[in-house]
Design a protein that fits this description.
CATH class of the domain at 2-52 and 266-490 and 668-840: Mainly Alpha
Shape: elongated
CATH architecture of the domain at 2-52 and 266-490 and 668-840: Up-down Bundle
Number of helices: 27
Structural class: mainly alpha
Number of strands: 10
Helix content: 55-70%
Strand content: 5-15%
């Protein structure tokens, strides 16, 4: 009684004040709208998948450490592809030259020239191996001297000199050298010519081209981060301009020039998201306006609906821009759905208001009674919906938590906007555009009268409807057990993001999914690398291929000992030259002599910049970073889950070492999401139950509200299985959202008094159908999105809302017919009522 009395007093006082000063109230609300629009300009959208993942996780913390210690882990890649290998290599080199002139470029290469390292290749062999070669040369020299001396007799055969095959075998046994040469694309470690044989189409060693030369690449390190969308977009646009500048006028028709890597993905995903937001928002708004015109056949009511709706959206965006301007992809599209969610309140208010006006009630009285009766049910529905949405904030997955907060905030503000803007707007509009209430009719009301008679005309019919509904629900539940999860994330990315060129082989394995290993010192990194190589990659990489790269793969340790052994080998070879055959002398002069002539150590400062760039950390430390190149697909959630599990084992084995992989975040979040989902669904359902019980203070009515909701959820999953729709990171949010969206209609029906006129039920059903259809229009517009993940969200939402509509308009009325005592006698807020004079409406 106290709540009803207080609510009536508040509504009556506000309507009277709005009647006296409608323009003053509208001016106040307009100022708040302007402030909201101004604040909304601060909102930015992060379309990346990482923005959906938990903010605090081992992977996120490791990636933060990686960014603090390493200059850059993402390069700009330009790809050239045609059937002319020579043209591809020329264009790649010209692109690299142009990139080097950019002020943002640290280095740019079309070839990882291996000569610097190949000229010093013997320094990579262990000192004992070099000493072994020197000993064998000395033995040969001793034998030759004895053979040349008539006084010396030896029974031994001529000892063989070390040949290229032996040197190659020695390199093959060294993991660091294998890793270095594999990344350089140099397959020759023996003392021989390093260039590709003349007259062949095979690209020279180190060239960033595929083996057949039909795809070449340019790699550039920039002073910037592709995570900065503005910077990434600017670099991508400049690269496209560079393509236009260097494209030959008579180029082959199949020539393609593409930006690749994160500098392509991030800007393109942002562009697609912007286009999708614009397209789906306009489409959803257009469908909502069309539905309102069909339902009400009145431009005046359309005006009265749209103004509070726009105000609610502006206030919501303004508050978000003020307190949390960084939105992820799901939250951004959730805000675009506010029109479909917010208009529901206006539909319920104006249907009941217009019915009262059609019955001859004065304007002020009709507004007051509408706010008193419908407003109570609206507050209940909004409170329960907000509770359900707020439960999502408990999720670690930010796609859930942020969306829940935004949606809960949006429905509360939208309801408030209709309650406070509607009265002064109606009074102000009536001064210049008066309504004709006697001509207002709810077209299509007869359909709901017929439906009501079918499902609850008699108890026998009601029992049949309930029985059929239960059978269908059980069948849907059995089908729902086969619901699948989409693990192939390539199906969730717009196809336009991928250029489709097979460019991986052109980078000699460096486009594989990397795991960065960050030790505290060079010695610790050496120890970790030895243990990792002893254990093997354990299923995440091919152990026969280079998979672990460290600083010692490029800068060998203990160079003084290696130089001393190399000096002994050089002296021995020089002494052995006079005893060599002409062919052996030519081989020594052209191959061995330059290699054994190395007499100075080299440091990271002398190495090519494309090596030194990742060897040297931001603080100047060298040697404490390693990279594990895996053979797993970053787009396969199952494989990334396997990688995340392996990284967890590595972290346990090496507690002081950081293992970071941006791609592996997906593998870490999928198990957490699977664990979170039942909890979040349970919390959302419990939040709705608690909110309904607190507002209605009746366990029976709470169960009546929740029963069709549970039925709709089961039917949704069953229908999804029937149509082959899988749950994924994007559309999974629909399941808890459907609780909040479907509960409104059930509350409006359950809150109706059992002894009220039948037309009240028909009008409520009409309003429920209209509000659900507008929400369907808002979600349905997402199907037009280019992003497959967002489009799947729209598809699953259509199934969920359609199931909720059927459950509320078919199953629930029949159930209420069998338990009439659930209606009428209650202690909670009153339900919407329609004067009995409206029986003919």
């Amino acid at each position: 009684m106290t709540f009803r009395f207080s609510w009536r007093r508040l509504a009556t006082a506000y309507v009277k004040s709005a009647q006296r000063r409608p323009l003053a109230f509208l001016a106040l609300w307009s100022v708040l709208v302007a402030a909201g629009v101004f604040s909304a300009r601060r909102i930015v959208i992060d379309p990346s998948l990482t923005a959906l993942l938990p903010a605090e996780s081992p992977s996120q913390e490791a990636i933060a450490t990686l960014k603090q210690r390493v200059r850059s882990t993402a390069s700009l890649y330009l790809v050239v592809a045609s059937s002319d290998p020579a043209l591809n290599m020329r264009l790649a080199e010209r692109l690299a030259e142009e990139l080097r002139a950019w002020p943002e470029t640290r280095w740019a290469v079309a070839k990882r020239d291996p000569r610097f390292f190949l000229e010093r290749r013997l320094l990579f062999l262990p000192p004992e191996t070099l000493d072994g070669f020197a000993t064998r040369v000395q033995e040969r020299l001793t034998w030759e001297r004895c053979e040349a001396n008539p006084m010396c007799v030896t029974l031994d055969t001529r000892p063989p000199l070390p040949d290229a095959a032996e040197v190659r075998a020695a390199f093959r046994d060294d993991a660091n050298v294998k890793a270095m040469l594999g990344l350089l694309g140099a397959d020759s470690t023996a003392p021989s010519a390093d260039a590709a044989p003349t007259g062949t189409s095979k690209p020279p060693a180190g060239t960033l081209c595929s083996p057949d030369g039909q795809v070449c690449a340019v790699e550039a390190s920039l002073r910037g981060d592709p995570d900065n969308l503005g910077f990434a977009t600017a670099m991508s646009q400049r690269a496209e301009a560079l393509f236009a500048k260097l494209r030959p006028p008579h180029a082959p028709s199949g020539l393609r020039l593409e930006v690749s890597g994160p500098y392509r993905n991030a800007p393109m995903e942002k562009q697609i998201v912007s286009n999708d937001l614009r397209r789906t928002t306009l489409l959803g708004a257009g469908l909502i306006v069309l539905l309102m015109l069909v339902q009400f056949r009145s431009l005046r009511i359309l005006w009265l609906l749209l103004v509070p709706l726009v105000a609610g959206i502006a206030w919501t965006l303004g508050l978000i821009g003020l307190v949390h301007p960084q939105l992820n992809l799901l939250s951004a599209f959730g805000l675009s759905l506010l029109a479909g969610l917010g208009i529901d309140y206006g539909i319920h208010l104006f249907i009941h208001y217009s019915q009262r006006r059609a019955g001859g009630e004065p304007l002020a009285s009709a507004l007051t009674e509408t706010l008193v009766h419908v407003g109570n049910a609206m507050v209940t529905a909004t409170a329960t919906t907000a509770c359900g949405f707020a439960a999502l904030s408990a999720a670690r997955f930010r796609g859930f938590s942020q969306m829940g907060l935004m949606a809960g905030l949006g429905v509360v503000i939208s309801m408030t906007a209709f309650l406070v803007v509607m009265p002064p707007l109606v009074f102000a509009t009536d001064r210049v555009w008066s309504e004709r209430p006697l001509r207002f009719r709810l077209r299509g009301l007869g359909v709901f009268s017929w439906l009501d008679a079918c499902v609850r005309g008699t108890k026998r019919r009601a029992r049949i409807v309930v029985a059929v509904a239960l059978v269908v629900t059980i069948a849907g539940g059995l089908a729902a057990t086969r619901i699948g999860f989409e693990y192939d994330f390539r199906r969730l990315r717009p196809s336009r993001v991928s250029h489709g060129l097979p460019w991986g082989k052109a980078l000699h394995g460096t486009t594989r999914v990397p795991v960065f290993v960050l030790a505290r010192s060079r010695d610790e990194m050496r120890s970790v690398a030895e243990r990792l190589r002893a254990q093997g990659p354990e299923g995440v990489a091919n152990p026969d291929e280079p998979w672990l790269v460290t600083a010692e793969s490029f800068i060998p340790r203990d160079q003084s000992a290696r130089l001393a052994a190399l000096a002994r080998l050089r002296v021995a070879l020089e002494e052995a030259v006079p005893f060599m055959s002409d062919e052996q002398q030519r081989a020594f002069t052209t191959t061995w002599a330059p290699l054994v002539a190395v007499n100075q150590p080299f440091s990271v400062e002398q190495a090519p910049p494309w090596v030194a760039d990742w060897l040297v950390e931001r603080n100047g430390q060298v040697g404490s970073l390693g990279i594990i190149y895996t053979d797993l697909s970053g787009a396969d959630a199952r494989q990334m889950q396997r990688l995340a599990s392996q990284m967890a084992r590595w972290r346990q084995a090496f507690p002081h070492v950081v293992f970071a992989s941006p791609a592996a975040q997906v593998g870490e979040v999928v198990p957490g999401l699977a664990a979170d989902t039942p909890l979040i669904l349970g919390l959302a359902f419990a939040g709705l139950a608690l909110g309904t019980w607190l507002m209605g203070r009746s366990l029976r009515r709470t169960l009546l509200v929740l029963t069709p909701l549970a039925m709709a959820m089961v039917l949704t999953l069953g229908i999804a299985v029937a149509f082959g729709v899988k749950v994924n990171l994007y559309n999974l949010i629909v399941l808890p959202l459907a609780f909040g969206l479907g509960v409104d209609g059930a509350i409006y029906l359950v809150w109706l008094p059992a002894e009220g006129p039948r037309t009240a039920r028909h009008t409520a059903a009409f309003a429920i159908a209209g509000s659900t259809l507008t929400t369907l229009a808002a979600f349905g517009s997402l199907i037009a999105a280019e992003n497959p993940g967002i489009a799947s969200l729209g598809s699953l939402a259509l199934m969920a809302l359609g199931s909720a509509l059927v459950a509320n308009l078919v199953f629930l009325p029949a159930l209420l017919r069998l338990v009439p005592s659930a209606q009428g006698a209650h202690r909670g807020p009153s339900a919407p009522s329609i004067p009995s004079s409206q029986g003919g409406a």
